[in-house]
Design a protein that fits this description.
Blueprint: H1 3-13, H2 17-23, H3 33-39, H4 44-69, H5 75-79, E1 84-90, E2 99-105, H6 123-136, E3 139-145, H7 147-153, H8 155-168, E4 176-180, E5 190-193, H9 201-224, H10 230-233, H11 239-248, H12 259-266
Parallel strand pairs: 1-4, 4-5
Antiparallel strand pairs: 1-2, 2-3
Length: 267
C-alpha cells in the first residue's frame, strides 16, 4: 500500500469537519477526552475547530468566575438564611421621563452568569435576560420617581424615594439591601457599593430590570409624543430630542427644572 493510499484510507475513516463540529458542540470542559482526540487530527479545519472550542470554553470559564465573584456580597447572608435585595436605578440624566428603580431578591441557587451591569450589555442581551431574571427571582419590584416629583424635590431625592418605593413594594421582606451608591430611607441594613451593578449580581439584576422597564416605558411615550425620538434616546438630550423641543415645545413628561427644558419654557 502506498503512503498516499494509506493517508486516503485513514482520512476516509475520519468524520467530516461538519460532523465533528456537530458532535463536539456539547463540550463544556477543557478536560473532555474528545478534545485530546481532536488535537491529533492533523487537518487544518480540525485544528481551527479545536482553537474555537478552547476559546469558547475559556471565555465561558472566565464569565463563570466573574459571576461567582459578583455573588461575594450575597453569600454570607444567604448562608444565614437571610433574603438579600439588590437595588439600582436608571434615568437620572434624561430630560424627559421618570427615574425608574428596581429591587430584586435573588435565590441562593441563582444561576444566570450573564447577569451583569446593564450598561455592559447590549439591548438585545438585556431583553433576553429580563424574563429569565423575573422567572428565577424570589421577588421583583419597580419604584417610579415621576418628572413632577423630580422637579419638586430634585433628581437625587426623587431617586431615593423611588428606591424606597421599590423596596417597600417587594412581596417578600428583605433582611439586607445592597444598593448602588445610595442610601435608601428604609429601616433595613444596607451595603452601599460604588458601581454596585458591576460588583453584585443582585444589583446587576435590578439594573437590567429597571433599564428594560424604562426603555419599554419610553417607547410607549414615543407613541404618545412623537417627534422627540424617545424610543431611541430614552429621554436623553440628543440632537433629535433637542430639535423636537425647539419645534414642538415641552411635553408633560419633560423635567422642567432641567436646563435645556427650562430654557425652552423661559423663551
Amino acid at each position: 500500500m502506498t503512503v498516499l493510499h494509506e493517508q486516503l484510507t485513514i482520512m476516509s475513516k475520519q468524520p467530516s469537519l461538519a460532523q465533528l463540529k456537530q458532535d463536539l458542540a456539547d463540550i463544556a470542559d477543557l478536560n473532555d477526552s474528545r478534545l485530546t482526540s481532536l488535537a491529533t487530527d492533523s487537518r487544518k479545519g480540525a485544528q481551527l475547530l479545536l482553537k474555537q472550542i478552547q476559546h469558547r470554553l475559556a471565555k465561558a470559564e472566565a464569565a463563570e468566575q466573574a459571576f461567582q465573584e459578583r455573588l461575594h456580597y450575597e453569600r454570607p447572608f444567604w448562608a444565614r438564611g437571610e433574603r438579600v435585595a439588590g437595588i439600582d436605578e436608571v434615568g437620572r440624566g434624561p430630560l424627559a421621563g421618570p427615574v425608574v428603580t428596581s429591587a430584586v431578591i435573588l435565590p441562593p441557587d441563582f444561576d444566570i452568569p450573564l447577569v451583569n451591569d446593564s450598561k455592559q450589555l447590549t439591548a438585545k442581551e438585556r431583553e433576553r435576560l429580563y424574563p429569565l431574571i423575573l422567572a428565577q427571582a424570589q421577588s421583583v419590584s419597580i419604584g417610579i420617581g415621576s418628572p413632577a416629583l423630580i422637579d419638586q424635590i430634585n433628581i437625587y431625592q426623587a431617586t431615593r424615594v423611588a428606591m424606597q418605593r421599590a423596596v417597600l413594594g417587594l412581596g417578600l421582606a428583605p433582611q439586607q439591601l445592597i444598593v448602588d451608591a445610595m442610601q435608601i430611607p428604609v429601616d433595613v441594613p444596607q451595603i452601599r457599593l460604588i458601581k454596585g451593578d458591576a460588583k453584585s449580581a443582585s444589583v446587576a439584576a435590578a439594573s437590567i430590570v429597571a433599564k428594560v422597564y424604562r426603555d419599554h416605558l419610553m417607547a410607549t411615550y414615543d407613541e404618545l409624543y412623537p417627534g422627540y425620538g424617545f424610543a431611541q434616546n430614552a429621554g436623553y438630550g440628543t440632537a433629535e430630542h433637542l430639535q423636537g423641543l425647539a419645534d414642538r415645545g415641552v411635553t408633560p413628561i419633560h423635567r422642567r427644572t432641567f436646563s435645556p427644558v427650562q430654557k425652552i419654557l423661559q423663551a
